[in-house]
Amino acid sequence: MSNALMNRPPVDDRPQPPSFSKRRLPRWAPAAIALVSVAAGCGAGLLAGWQSRVQWGLIAALVFVAGTYLVTTVVEGKRQAKDRIATSLVWVCFVLAIVPLASLAWTTVTRGLRVLDGYFLSHSMAGLQNDEPGGGVYHAIIGTLEQVGLATLMAVPIGLLTAVYLVEYGRGRLAKAVTFFVDVMTGIPSIVAGLFILSTWVLTFGMGFSGFAGSMALAILMMPVVVRSTEEMLKLVPDELREASLALGVPKWRTILKVVLPTAVGGIATGVMLAVARITGETAPVLLLVSGSMFINNDPFNDVQSSLPLYVFEQYAVGTPAAVDRAWAAALVLIAIVMLLNLLARGIARWKAPKAR
Fold first, then answer.
1. Enclosing H/E stretch for 193
2. For this UniProt entry, which segments traverse the membrane (predicted)?
3. Are the beta carbons of 331 and 312 closer than 8 angstroms?
4. End-to-end Cα spacing for the chain
5. Which one, of 40, 25, 135, lies nearest residue 80 by Cα?
């Protein structure tokens, strides 16, 4: 046998993988299509004489999706075009969701900063009419913090213990009944909670309007949210942790206290803050039970109070430029308070969460 035949490499008869050398769109193609789509939407809006920017955005979104599909079909084929059109729809939905939020935040900040200063935060509306310039929001901040704080003190322990019962102990008809009523309470309108406290606490027992009455209505709205969020977080705790603790002879109540709750504390804190954020902006129960005041009242158990949502409602209803500016500034303060509470909850959750070894 010749040396040439001996040195020839063996022939590979195995099936070869498909070639990936087909044409592909460059990385900058989606951005370019998006820019062209925005230009097309603006051009169509100007030619049609549309005043609403929403119509311009919808045209741009349609052009972006259609353009992505056509260009990808020509360059990469129909199969890849279907994948890219799904990605384009996801991006369009994301933009449609984020634009109203960004617009709301921008409007609140720009209009709220007109009168938001140290004087506005440290003075009340005492001695001023709602249509006069000046005044502040201090009395409403005090009312909101006290009412939300009292509602949280009432709702969180009850909601937390209810969730622990449903996850760790609940069996049979009682657990099903509790779950059913929690689901029903989740959908209760805020005005119904306010009317319930009004008919019992104020009219039946004759306790009068106060910040505490509003707190009880807010606690009713807060409890089902705390129960549902805490229940879901407790269900995520692995059963192996419970079994390991019980196998060491630790009582069940101590296992829940020392193992289950610390493991889920991050999610529980987030759920509590979601509930706090919901009740902080409620106006109907406060309007019915707290009644509103232009003066500072540091005692939530006696006499009427104000709150930030009620203050915004009252000032915007006046309609004068000074009152509307105060309403936007109070709305900005309300958003800032909710944001600070969320940051505080995240800090506590990180501090109390189990440390990885």
1. helix 190-197
2. 28-50, 56-77, 89-109, 148-167, 179-203, 209-227, 259-279, 327-345
3. yes
4. 67
5. 25
Residue 43: what pLDDT?
A: 83
Given a contact cutoff of 8 angstroms between Cβ atoms, the answer to whether 277 and 341 are in contact is yes
Q: Up-side HSE of residue 306: CA atoms within 13 Å toward CB?
A: 23
Three-state SS at 305: strand
Q: Where are the domains of the chain?
A: 25-112, 138-352
* 3-state secondary structure at position 213: helix
What does each C-alpha distance from 17 to 14, 20, 212 come to in angstroms? 9, 9, 73
Size of the chain, expressed as the number of residues it contains:
357
pLDDT in tens, 79-118: 888 888 888 888 888 888 888 888 888 999 999 998 888 8
Averaged pLDDT of the chain: 85
Give the tokens for residue 39.
């230009």
Average pLDDT of 137-164? 93
User: Taking the model in full, what pTM does it have?
Assistant: 0.79
